[in-house]
Amino acid sequence: MLVSVFGFQVALPLLVVAWLTFLPARSVVGLAVQIFAAAVFLLALDLTAMWAILVWWLPYVYAVIFVSAVALSLFRKNVTARPKWRSDARDWIGLGVSVIFLVAGCWYLVLALAARVPPPFATFIDVANPFGAGHYIVVQGGSRRLLNEHLRTLDTGVERYAAWRGQSYAIDLVGIGDWGLRARGLQPPDPAAYAIFGARLHAPCTGVVLQARDGHPDFQLPDNDLVNRLGNHLILRCSAADIVLAHMRAGSILVETGDAVQVGQQIGQVGNSGASGEPHLHIHAQKPAAPGAAPISGEPLSLLIGGRYLVRGDRLEGVKW
Questions:
Q1: How far is CA 268 from CA 144, 215, 246, 281, in A?
Q2: Are 146 and 285 in contact (CB under 8 A)?
């Protein structure tokens, strides 16, 4: 995973900027297409990549570098001194590379923008912010699989997904610590090294605890539990919807099945139990599961937190309850 992260979030954007800096087109038309293609490609990368793995503000650094590269390309040789077009092999090859970056950028930019639009005809459930004090960022969220891998469970052609259908519009969040980093290191094995581990969770709605499960361990990375996938978790019945909070810290759950909860009431902490790649909060809304069916097999509902439809890269500030 880290290889792909460095490839797409470090090597690729630096390659695009280096191409613009050291191999600028020699004609006005070629340079205009090259700059536009690089801008669209970098914007698409900004809107699709999971920047929290490195640091959330890295795209802003690339934006500054890009603007500097554009200025250098324009003023190294006065743009008015360039011919409108040159038709030798180097210029055609350069134009072809620009078109490749432009097409790829436009394709992923359209998908990323579409993922920021809530699912059509969705039923929305608006809940309160479940976090106490702190800073958090969405790593999975949106209406397309490009930004939200949970959507794969909508595929009715895969039989085992039926038991997990309710989580199809889920949101996953990690914490942001010092310098905007999510952890002390790139992928430390100790879950306590992650900013979100132990973060307080509060009931996002008023209702009844439909299911409370505790006692599963918080795993060292990269270990996880593929059998008890939710790990320590709560399912809250709030009006006609079930709200699921998963991967909670071992021994942290403060309520029991059947308890009534009020919005804002502290209910536990974030952990790294169950099928969790690293400490994070998984939260989703669903219609109640059918009697006797798997607990999160209900029809998925689109979740709003504090009135916001959250997608990958969105940041959320905790609340001082």
A1: 30, 13, 11, 11
A2: no
DSSP assignment letter at 122: P
What is the CATH code of the structural domain delimited by 124-317?
2.70.70.10
Low-confidence ranges of the chain (pLDDT < 70): 77-80
Q: What is residue 62's three-state secondary structure?
A: helix
The residue whose two tokens read 């640091």 is 55
Q: Which of 205, 171, 173 is nearest to 300 (CA)?
A: 171
If we measure between CA atoms, which residue out of 107, 122, 131 comes closest to residue 269? Answer: 131
Closest CA to 283 of 174, 153, 146: 174
- Give the tens place of pLDDT for each residue, 242-273: 999 999 999 999 999 999 999 999 999 999 99
Backbone φ, ψ for residue 312 (5° rounding) = -50, 135
Domain ranges of the chain: 2-115, 124-317
> CA-CA distance, 24 to 245, in Å (whole number)?
51
- Per the listing, tokens 């019945």 go with 237
